[in-house]
Design brief:
Largest sheet: 7 strands, mixed
CATH class: Alpha Beta
CATH architecture: 3-Layer(aba) Sandwich
Distance between the termini: 15 Å
Structural class: alpha/beta
CATH topology: Rossmann fold
CATH superfamily: HAD superfamily/HAD-like
Radius of gyration: 16 Å
Shape: globular
Number of strands: 7
Helix content: 40-55%
Strand order of the largest sheet: 4-3-2-1-5-6-7
Length: 210
């Protein structure tokens, strides 16, 4: 019986990359999205790429950050899929290498139980270019998943993970059901379920109705 489902946020629960929306607001969208793409393909160290990208956001008004985070486009089927999982008795958690301004706001809309992500430092109303938090490294999602499983008494066989990029590989290592959602090739290799259409309800079909 499945008891836990962990979703990535950017390009999984949300249709896009939060940091790319920030960069577009600063006129540096192409520069930042190129780094994001390489990181998600596993070509760059996640920690280093995150520091580099956030550094480029220095000076962005925090009010603009909040405005963008409050108007992100959520993935088709996200609300319905999370509601279905919770109705089946699963805990639903969001792990994001992105930012709490996005994941905590989305929590009440999408309906997941908790979010673990990173925090953009701001001083005097603008971003400093510094970041810290729960999901800073390539191994962070796997590390947090192991702690959650221990805390909740849940086994890998009772765990579903859903993601799209290289930094999701660490949590795939500790789950029996591994869903690559519109994912990079590097993650598809680690998956046992692959969804190629932008519709999260496909997960319910493939996991529970297979």
């Amino acid at each position: 019986m499945m008891k836990l489902c962990v979703f990535d946020f950017d390009s999984t629960l949300m249709d896009g990359e939060t940091i790319d929306f920030f960069a577009e607001a600063m006129g540096i969208g192409a520069e930042v999205s190129a780094i994001t793409e390489r990181a998600m393909n596993g070509e760059l160290d996640f920690f280093e790429s995150l520091q580099q990208r956030v550094g480029l956001l220095k000076g962005l008004d925090f009010s603009k950050v909040e405005e963008i985070c409050h108007h992100l486009p959520y993935m088709n089927g996200a609300i319905e899929t999370i509601a279905d999982l919770r109705a089946r008795g699963l805990k639903v958690i969001c792990f994001s290498g992105g930012f709490r301004t996005a994941t905590s706001f989305a929590k009440n809309i999408l309906g997941y139980d908790a979010d673990f992500s990173n925090v953009l430092q701001a001083k005097n109303g603008t971003l400093t270019g510094l970041v810290g938090g729960d999901m800073m490294f390539d191994y962070s999602k796997g590390d947090m998943l192991l702690r959650l499983q221990s805390l909740l008494g849940i086994t890998p066989e009772q765990t579903i993970v859903v993601g799209d990029g290289a930094n999701d590989r660490s949590m795939f290592a500790h789950a029996g059901t591994r869903v690559a959602f519109c994912a990079k090739e590097i993650l598809k290799k680690e998956a046992n379920i692959i969804v190629e259409t932008k519709d999260l309800t496909q997960i319910i079909t493939k996991v529970f109705n297979a």
